[in-house]
Amino acid sequence: QVQLVESGGGVVQAGGSLRLSCAASRLTFNRYAMGWFRQAPGKEREFVAAVSRSGVTTNYADSVKGRFTISRDNAKNTVYLQMNNLKSDDTAVYYCAADDEYTASGFRRDYEYWGQGTQVTVSS
After folding, report:
1. Kind of pairing, strands 118-123 and 10-13?
2. Cα–Cα distance between 27 and 98 in angstroms, integer?
3. pLDDT 10s per residue in the chain (124 long)?
4. Alpha carbon distance 23, 15 (integer Å)
5. What is the dihedral of CA 82, 87, 92, 93, to 10 degrees?
6. How far apart are CA 120 and CA 90, in angstroms?
7. Dihedral of alpha carbons 47, 49, 51, 52, sign
């Protein structure tokens, strides 16, 4: 089965940085756009960032523009989310997802495969 495995989460102070990774297996990685979503307790899962199949096109939620950077390494079947200047509002479980239909989509419904998530906690 297709697997997406996130890593890199943890506890960080406000203003700090983390880099999340998502390793994909059992799919043709360069045929999929990749996205990151997050979900805080009691909240809906929300879009964070997405990158096209080639890595050329990116898409970000307004709340993270200028702070987060999504990238991918197709040779390693891995997508990354570099998170800088973290805020308490960034606390959530972060999920990566794969989309074989659209390019750098910001819509949750467009993504076919999902990872299990990694916890990011930002302390004040």
Report:
1. parallel
2. 9
3. 999 999 999 999 999 999 999 999 999 999 999 999 999 999 999 999 999 999 999 999 999 999 999 999 999 999 999 999 999 999 999 999 999 977 899 999 999 999 999 999 999 8
4. 26
5. 20
6. 8
7. positive
Q: Which two tokens stand for residue 17?
A: 């940085």
**How far apart are the two ends of the chain, measured CA to CA in Å?**
40
Distance in angstroms (rounded) separating the CA atoms of residues 51 and 87: 23
- Please tell me the total number of residues recorded for the chain in this structure: 124
Token look-up 């891995």 returns 78
